[in-house]
Write a structure and sequence with these properties.
57% of the residues lie in helices and 25% in strands. The chain has three helices and four strands, in the order ααββαββ.
């Protein structure tokens, strides 16, 4: 082989290598462009999902505004009794402020509905003898001063003297759950 043949063969190898390199670079470029297109589609999909979620959230806020306002109005009353101690302190204070003398008082926690924001109830059982008008007046004031409470039972019988009545009262006071209810 002479020098010209060697040079031609060497030049052919270089041209072949350059063509192969160009094909490889072109393949990588095509793969990168496909990856870019896929990423751009994913971005557009994510952007559309975000916009849809924002619209749903705005609709949900608009639809539930009345309920959230209603809850805000009741929240101070619900937060008065976060624990058994708070509920018992509140009920003892209401009885003490009324001037009624309780013969017996007992308080115990009762489990609430599991899917409710009310974690449990404090059930107070009160027995007292007092004037008829004073007892019913206190009962009315109890409803206004403790609006979240529920009178579960109220038994009235004749008292020891003329205008006195013996009252057996069972009051449920909700204890507001600070954690959201668990979903099934």
């Amino acid at each position: 082989m002479n020098a010209k043949s060697m040079a031609c063969m060497f030049l052919g190898i270089i041209i072949g290598a350059a063509a192969y390199g160009t094909l490889m670079v072109h393949k990588k470029l095509a793969a990168m462009q496909a990856e870019e297109e896929k990423a751009e589609n994913a971005y557009k999909t994510a952007e559309n999902n975000r916009k849809n979620a924002e619209k749903k959230l705005a609709n949900l806020r608009r639809e539930t505004q009345g309920k959230r306002d209603y809850l805000q109005e009741w929240l101070p009353y619900l937060q008065e009794t976060r624990s058994e101690v708070d509920g018992e302190r509140l009920m003892v204070g209401k009885v003490r402020d009324s001037g009624l003398t309780a013969l017996t008082e007992s308080y115990k926690p009762v489990p609430g509905n599991k899917n409710s924001s009310i974690g449990s109830l404090l059930q107070g059982k009160l027995v007292f003898v007092a004037d008829y008008a004073k007892t019913l007046d206190w009962l009315g004031k109890l409803e206004t001063s403790l609006p979240t409470s529920r009178i579960a039972s109220f038994k009235v019988s004749k008292g020891s003297s003329g205008n006195d009545i013996r009252s057996e009262l069972v009051v449920d006071v909700p204890m507001y759950a600070t954690k959201a209810p668990k979903k099934k």
